[in-house]
Batch of 3 targets.
Target 1
Amino acid sequence: MTEPTVHDDLAAGRALVADACRVLATEGLVDEVLGHVSMRVGERSLLVRCRGPEEHGLLFSAAGDVRLVELDGDEVRLGEGEGEGGFRVPVELPIHTEVLRARPEVGAVVHAHPPEVVLCSILGLEYRPVFGAFNIPAMRLAGSVPTFDFAGLVRSTRRAREMVAVLGDSPVCVLRGHGLTAVGATVEQAVVRAINFVALARMTAAVAATGRPARDIDERDLADLPDLGSAFNDDQVWRYYLAKARQNKP
């Protein structure tokens, strides 16, 4: 299992979270100013993508948009100087703080609004392993992703804890009519998991649109599919998406 990464270099952490936001926007998981990424920093703080007074959206995220948030019991506040320039934490910050409180192995949280995931949640479609080597990590998410049956903003600690209870030890949770929350030991892993789950949702919606039945892949085929490990499934894939986002930088 990949160990959670704890960053002492705040500058590097800010740059990484900003890169993650641009990747998510490039891949269509977030649009305009909605969605956010966080990264654990030590035991009592996190870096999170915030909004400033001249907000231009996640596609244009910069390291300066990522601010340090401190946790003190149930109290959450921006670190000293982090609110300068009019920066504010996301309304749904409790998604991040409560996941990090409950899951010590998690080092990063992604909250995004992919249209394909929203569509599947509206229709109540089941995520099934209907493909194999096409995308092995995405296929392995089938049947393991729970749905939080609440379509409003997760802006209170109470509501976030309800979501966390539904998430359990899963890597991804769907929020009905809203989007998804994905977690990982690292920012890179959380982002790639979110992208993989969208690939599964996209295929699920496409199959449903045909009106034709689809069978799950055979058990013997499933047994033949290898786990290529995080170095391949997360790190190399992340580098591809990051290079793509940088090449297409507005």
Target 2
Amino acid sequence: MSDSLDTLQAALQAAFGDTITALKRDRGELTLTVPAAAYAEVALRLRDDPALKFEQLIDLAGVDYSEYRNQPWDGARYCVVSHLLSVTHNWRLRLKVFCPDDDLPQVASVTPVWNAANWFEREAFDLYGILFDGHLDLRRILTDYGFIGHPMRKDFPVSGHVEMRYDPEQRRVIYQPVTIEPRENVPRVVREENYGGLH
């Protein structure tokens, strides 16, 4: 495993050199971080370079780094993380790219490189509001078309903004402001010596 990672790391450094923002090796995995401006070009080379040959995109997801690990985060807020597989070389890679603008998070679409990215990018757009430049059908995939906001952002309220219910008088589904009163649940701590009949 270590020899394989050494080979992959050397191949990545040879292919991308100064383009690499970070190349981290942890727990037997490699994570390659590249700038947004080079993202599409790097993805294409990861797929087509015979020394790398990442034919398959396994997963792609958005990440909101605000308050990462419950700490203030001083870098770019939104990131797109992809998991790639090379069947030819039997190795995996995590590819990360941070969106340069927190107010309008956007990176290139990798759907032209790996068609499997299509629905994953739609999901990241729907849940995080990340735009994918060049995606041919970027629209919501999990939430309702009239949904306001992006529910996986850390600043999105837990109860949401609106609720939906069926109104028998109007005989249709209606949206209305949330009627749930916000509350804080404090877990009950049980310290009874024989709680649950265990001795």
Target 3
Amino acid sequence: MLQEGDAAPDFVSTDQNGNTVKLSDLSGKRIVLYFYPKDDTPGCTKEACSFRDADDIFKAKGIKVFGVSTDSEKSHQKFISKYQLPFDLLADTEKQIVEAYGVWAEKSMYGKKYMGTLRKTFLIDDGKIVKIFDKVNVSEHAEEVLAAFGEK
């Protein structure tokens, strides 16, 4: 299980437009890697919109935000378009990133067990994990993240 202070696992993925995103290519930058279960669902939409609404602050502070789910590029495109999301969503359809970050796990809903993505956020600064949010308040998460980076 990853802990604060660990090196962030490198990955290669594609964003909503099919562009390659490699974490190690972003070394020296501050990154928000937020994992969420599914595009266009109530909690995930609130969380994405919280980051959208604070996007100017993130950009001004040089912080790059990436949302990650196991949804497809096409699903991400619809989600971005519907809510005018100004940041990239990574399509982890092969589950490589969710597994590397330990967020692919057994979940339970209405008594049924299934595998899914845990809602969890990693703050990465120059390749190191500086903060992990295990509990996420979807409506105020962007503010929590900025505060953890020492920004407001």
